[in-house]
């Protein structure tokens, strides 16, 4: 698909979301099923446009003077993607499935896009009813902080110290523009591609061989704050897919025991492959038995419930 056709598809998906009051993920899935010719890169690019527009819907509508799908896509292309009027006009050409050309009003609004005079909840893209609570926390940084919350997050990974050091992983992932995380001493941050896509981490040897695991910096810090030490017995009561369990195993240097459980046994399904990939040998997975009981040791170190 040409770039203009992707724009038109994103507008179509937003129209479906508005008309049927449905989740964006469902609308994108149905669009993909109805347009089998679209490749994975096309679907990813369309999804990125849709979510950019939804995250910045209020500010995009403000700068364009309208709140419809076409307007918020135009606003997002200006505010999020930083396109010039010439670049946007080329996408809205009306040719080969591209959207109809921009009107004079759209061109004027796009060229002069500004959030000057916008209410705080519009400039920061957050619900108006949260303004008092956010203002109490962020004070004069209200718009800066809430605007940051509306941005698409980069990908954070945790270096698995059972297999690798952060310095080695940083060097190995340099081609993905990896940088160290500001707070976690075990984290690396991978920026989005210029097209707004996540980096192709799943095919990287460091990921395949378990030297890094996808985990946001906040979760890395939560695991570290548990302060689990080698040789202790730890219960991860809400282990889920095992992200923090793996972090604890590395912090404990594979010594002691971690009992990983979850009230919903189905959430534990991915943990087995992740444990093997990471080389974590001090974890026992305990799915809940009938009645919600588990056979567990009596003496504990930390009990972790996320």
UniProtKB/TrEMBL annotation:
Alphabetic keyword roster = Methyltransferase, RNA-binding, S-adenosyl-L-methionine, Transferase
Sorted alphabetically, which SUPFAM superfamilies does this protein's record hold?
S-adenosyl-L-methionine-dependent methyltransferases
Q: Which GO terms describe its biological process?
A: RNA methylation
Q: Domain (SAM-dependent MTase RsmB/NOP-type): give its ranges.
A: 145-306
| Chain positions recorded as S-adenosyl-L-methionine binding sites | 262
Keyword Transferase in annotation: yes
Q: Which GO terms describe its molecular function?
A: RNA binding; RNA methyltransferase activity
The record's annotation in InterPro entries points to: MeTrfase_RsmB-F_NOP2_cat, MeTrfase_RsmB-F_NOP2_dom, RCMT, RsmB-like_ferredoxin, SAM-dependent_MTases_sf
Q: For this UniProt entry, which segments traverse the membrane?
A: none
Which Pfam families does the record match to this protein?
A: Methyltr_RsmB-F (PF01189), RsmF-B_ferredox (PF22458)
Q: Which PANTHER family match?
A: NOP2 YEAST -RELATED NOL1/NOP2/FMU SUN DOMAIN-CONTAINING, RIBOSOMAL RNA SMALL SUBUNIT METHYLTRANSFERASE B-RELATED
Q: Could you say which protein family the record assigns here?
A: Belongs to the class I-like SAM-binding methyltransferase superfamily. RsmB/NOP family.
Name-wise, this protein is: MFS transporter
Q: Which organism is it from?
A: Methylocella tundrae
């Amino acid at each position: 698909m040409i770039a203009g056709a992707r724009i038109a598809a994103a507008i179509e998906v937003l129209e479906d979301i508005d008309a049927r009051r449905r989740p964006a993920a469902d609308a994108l899935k149905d669009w993909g099923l109805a347009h089998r010719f679209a490749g994975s890169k096309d679907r990813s690019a369309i999804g990125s446009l849709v979510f950019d527009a939804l995250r910045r819907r209020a500010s995009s509508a403000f700068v364009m003077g309208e709140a419809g799908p076409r307007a918020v896509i135009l606003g997002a292309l200006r505010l999020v993607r930083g396109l010039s009027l010439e670049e946007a006009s080329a996408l809205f050409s009306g040719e080969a499935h591209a959207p109809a050309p921009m009107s004079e009003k759209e061109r004027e609004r796009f060229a002069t896009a500004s959030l000057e005079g916008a209410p705080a909840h519009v400039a920061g893209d957050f619900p108006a009813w949260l303004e008092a609570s956010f203002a109490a926390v962020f004070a004069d940084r209200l718009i800066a902080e809430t605007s940051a919350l509306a941005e698409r997050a980069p990908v954070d990974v945790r270096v698995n110290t059972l297999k690798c050091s952060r310095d080695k992983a940083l060097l190995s992932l340099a081609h993905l523009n990896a940088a160290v995380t500001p707070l976690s001493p075990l984290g690396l941050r991978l920026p989005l591609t210029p097209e707004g896509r996540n980096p192709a981490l799943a095919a990287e040897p460091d990921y395949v061989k378990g030297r890094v695991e996808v985990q946001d910096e906040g979760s890395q810090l939560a695991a570290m704050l548990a302060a689990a030490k080698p040789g202790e017995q730890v219960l991860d009561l809400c282990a889920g897919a095992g992200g923090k369990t793996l972090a604890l195993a590395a912090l404990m240097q594979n010594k002691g025991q971690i009992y990983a459980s979850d009230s919903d046994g189905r959430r534990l399904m991915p943990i087995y492959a992740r444990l093997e990939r990471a080389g974590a040998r001090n974890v026992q997975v305990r799915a809940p038995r009938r009645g919600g009981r588990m056979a567990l040791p009596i003496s504990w170190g930390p009990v972790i419930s996320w």
